[in-house]
């Protein structure tokens, strides 16, 4: 990975950080043991649990004496898991380690003093030199580092089946205008142009419509204050979003993101806009990249990598702290990342992983991630560029927006923090 990847990531505006209040005392909690580790995540569904299992298998290989207690709570994007976790943390009942996105999503937990500073582990393991500097920056608050990233996911992808497109005489749209033009004809054939799922998947669509319409600078400006939410361009992009939403099956959708992808697999829907965890899911269905399924950058976002990163923490008062440290060491290791990511549909966070382990879609993703010409921006839906408070405000405004289609009202509610 070259310098420009580092500096582009470093240039991500991660503004408005609350002062971190956590500090590591480095001491095990009273009674802490080494024989068991409880790890909390939301990787319970198909396409996600396989990745976790592969990581756990490598953990067991590295540390055969430690029992792995899987506390995963199902629900895409952690929608359910994160509220279960919040209750546990409030009740002083932390797991030994929990999943959280790199970036602003960490801020509230740091401010609440829930997570430990991991600089000592970074020093011990030499991780700073093995991760993109911009990624380390996204998990650093007031000079302290609060999590261990296992991967890089890409949010802005449009998934399809080549056989469906061939039957329709279509190629994937490069712009939203092209998508709208295709969608007309698809609806008259009783096909869903774009399948979708619950609110978080609509938020995921929103961020990528904004990205495609505003470009990487305009999109990034929404989160760092550089773009005027009240301006005409944002209004236009929000109208585009409501237009696109009418071309989805949002009104009848049941199930999570996997169910939405199933419509594309069945050929009743033509496209799905989702992150590259879809790659892992489609492989669990026995499909192969390029023949069974394809993916392109979502309309208007070619050569842009809208990134997010899953990472793991060391909560204060972790009941099995020595074992939790071992878990984190596996998460940050080459062998852990090279076991996990090929199954998860993500590329390794580490820059020294074994690229021969990444084939199909992931070979292309790795090349694009490493390409000096690729522009990196951060995902809003998956915690990189907005903190939890802002994200919740966007959720509330979005559920109203999808009903009333009032772009000005949405912009005022969602953009008011900048
Ligand atoms: C994201 C997470 C991914 C994947 C996805 C769908 O938030 O970072 O690893 O799990 O949700 O659940």
Characterization of this structure:
By secondary structure, the chain is of the alpha/beta class. It is built from 17 helices and 15 strands. The strands form four sheets. Strands 2-1-3-13-6 form a five-stranded mixed β-sheet. A four-stranded mixed β-sheet has the order 14-7-12-15, sandwiched between helices. β1 (36-40), α2 and β2 (67-70) form a beta-alpha-beta unit. The protein starts with a helix and ends with a helix. The chain binds beta-D-galactopyranose.
Summarize this structure as a short list of keywords or feature phrases.
5-stranded mixed beta sheet; 4-stranded mixed beta sheet; globular; disordered N terminus; binds beta-D-galactopyranose; 17 helices; 418 residues; alpha/beta
